[in-house]
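Section: Multi-chain targets

For targets with more than one molecule, the full set of components is provided together so that the structure can be written out for the assembly as a whole rather than chain by chain. Components appear in the order listed by the source. The example entry contains two components.
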Amino acid sequence: MRWVALAVALPLAALAQAPQACRALYRQGKLAEARECNTRLAKSEDPFLRAQGLWGIRDYQGANAAFREAALARPADPGVKVLWGRMYLEHFQPADAMALFQEALKAKPDYAPALLGMALAASEGYEIRAVELAESALKSDPRLAEARALLARLALEDNDRKRAGDEADKALDSLEALSIRATMDWLDDKGDTEWIARILKIDPAYGEAYSTGARLLVLNRRYDEGIHLYRRALELNPELSDARAELGVQLMRMGGEIEARKQLESCYKKGYRGPAVVNSLRLLDSYKNFETFRTPTTVLRLQKKEAALLRPYFQEQMDRAMAAYEKKYKLKLTKPVQVEVYPDHEDFAVRTMGMPGLGILGVTFGNVVAMDSPSGRKPGDFHWASTLWHELSHVYVLTATNHRVPRWFTEGMAVHEETAASPEWGDRVSPEVIQAIKDRKLLPVAELDRGFIRPSYPAQVIVSYFQAGRICDYVNQRWGFDKLLAMMREFGERKTTPEVVQHQLAMTPDQFDQDFLAWLGQQTKTQVAGFDDWRKGLRGVAEAARAKKWEQVIAEGKAIRDLYPDYVEAGSVYEFLSQAYVAQGDKAKAMSELDRYTHAGGRNPATLKQFAAWQAESGRQREAAQVLARLNLIAPNDEDLHRKLGALLQESGDHAGAAREWQSVVAMKPADTAGANFELAKALQAAGKRDDARDAVLNALEAAPGYKPAQRLLLELDGKE
Amino acid sequence: MAVAAAVGADMKALTLLLAVASLAPATTFYVTVAGLGGEDEFQQRFDNWAKEIDKLVRASKDAQVETLFGPAATKARVEAALRSVSAKAQRDDALVLMLIGHGTFDGYDYRLNLPGPDITAGELSALLDRIPASRQLIVNMTSCSGGSMKAFQGAGRVVVTATKTGTERNATIFARYWVEALRDPAADSDKNETISALEAYRYAEQKTSQFYETQKRLATEHAVLEDTGKGDGVRQPSPQNGQGLAAAQFAVVRMAGAQNISNDPALLNKREELEARIDKLKYEKASLNEGEYRKQLRALLTALAKVQAELDK
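Its structure, encoded as tokens over all components, is:
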């Protein structure tokens, strides 16, 4: 039980005596005595006292029944409901907790403990209303120290150090506020903070102080330090199951799976079975279905079913990206980078659980990258290579800064690197972003972290990624990449965003915001100004296409296409125009539209395959192969793609490339094993790999012994020998 | 899938002698019916599939083809087509009935939706029973087609349905891949230049499953095959479940050159002996180390290739 300094006014002072006594023992670090006290309390005839005792010994079922009885006995007492809700909050049931706090507020409007409970529940999900609710609680009861401490924590999560300090200082008689102060020191690399001594003087077993610090360090991507503090928390109080669970989760994130399992299983056995524990254990169990490939610099973990197919493509991109970043960032990593690829999005989601503002496709924890497999989403939904480069950029930026970098900067660099790798990669300017620019919703650079941690509107995280990326583009364009490196160095030295902007760019953050917005305005002028016309026009084009009014599609489509050239999602103007030109028998123009679509970053596999087929038909084999090769970085789980690309590459003389593609077909365990192995053998033979070719042709004949062309090839290979 | 494919290959090798004889029946009668689409989009799709099947099977030697689609695909015309086959077919002939479109199943009767009155599986089965051809392949690719399995199955019949039960009601895409199987050389997994019912089924079933998997859609159809005349259809025919033997011997389409059979008995015997040894070696694979297995396999396959080269001279 996480004892809380509740200001619940009980109607009978005597009733409050026993729980307070147990709480006092706990707060003095006398954990065994506190447990005995609670055990006694759990036998009380009064259901409310019994509930608190049972909660104290973590008998949640028993406590729940007793709370229910107490609530029936004292329906007008909001204190019962608030404590009951706090127990739910501890027991991973924030929605149930919220309902009880709301009931308490109905019984007593502006009831500060209920408002605080709601603020705490909202803070678990990084909701922006957590701040408002904590402020309301304080307005109702200015002495409510826990609400003050919560406000301090929320400010610290938003990287608002001043407010965090101010709020904490107003409640320095509470352990929670003192913990915030200690945390601020840890964030500032002051390991031996004086605040800990003050805390331990009050409660020698107050491990929660370290947990608070650990949580904030993890939030700032300082995972190793977070792990260290969780360990300290457990040294002081081994019963802190939430700290143990978090320790397990962070260990798992950092690749320490053996100890992670030990810690998580310990929580599970003690009945602490929240989503983090259960889902993480499930994920650890699923690792038996994965295969790990190691090189001196990389560790690649792929699901067994798709390992043979994906490995060559992932390994190639990892090696390319790391070579590029080593040069750009002037940094050689000392530890291998681990990339984990999850075909089941739910498994990947376990990796990001409890972390706000992280990418929905990939996430980086120190040297460990976890991401969705291309097979985990509908083909064309995302560009996996772009995601991989994005995440690997984090590894370099976090290493270069020793994890002391604001969220906006590391995300900005990662987004910048996507399009630096290829202008066709990276997310395009989305309608949400255009709307945010129109509505002037971009945040000042000094506050940009808030857009990732505690968004104030649904699309703000996406908008913040875009803004951060464009800020890095802008700095790169105006001052050069070395300036980004210099900024990165200063962030690593614990400088704040305003300090770095002032020092490196020689201007105030306000001036920077003005200059950046002016630059961005120029960049997005056409799209922002034409957005409404484009949106209306696209509807008309889509309707005309449905009605097969091709003249209209062409006329209206051409009129709006360049108002928003970045739009390459489903129902893009390029695709409508291409369809219309084909219907009119003008394949050259249709191809021209798809060429635009491709270069604008279009990812629809069917459209790209159609484009490649037309190119091949018109004798442009090399270009066709290039278009299909793009698809390998988008949707490689497609046998037909590899067959076509293999044939095109073989025809154009790229035998090694053809062999890679036929190897992919074989890896997909096709119905035609013999045919695929035969084509692979031909490509290997042409690439001069006779032994490998013989192996492949034997595989073909093993599946179909009477396969005549393969028999001839075998004799030919043997003859050459 | 790999295991099933390998097992299937073994099964095929074991029945090679039978297959050589049975792959060349006197005449194969093809009756293809594309039922009522209900909407233009479906009608066009169903008709196109039927037309493509028509084109593909007409290319086979000794094929007699009747394809019904659009307004012509009435119950009366379907009945007439099957009666016509009854009148012409001999015992050694084969019949392939392919049904495309929407089906319904009310728990008792399966019905193929046709312009005008529908036709039930029971009515179709009664017509099929009168056809003397001893080997029959019924490929019901409609929604709810699983509901027709019991009515169709019988001795000498290979039955394929696009859905496992009559309750899988959504429009199916199995037909798209069945058509593809008949024209894609990749479906010919044993490379004997003949696409058997088992090969076409495996190809279409795999492609259909992949479609739902890659599109991240809940699979609303699960094709099954039954060729023993009893029991339920299975998704993965194999010696373990006893299904697939007759389907492996049933040629649906033959590619060019499939009938070029040498008449040199010594070489043919040698080839069969080598094929049998290869088959035996594959069975023993698990008990051999990989190096030894590959060495023996290479020697046998090389010998077989040389014999085939002699036969082809």
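Chain B has a mean pLDDT of 88.
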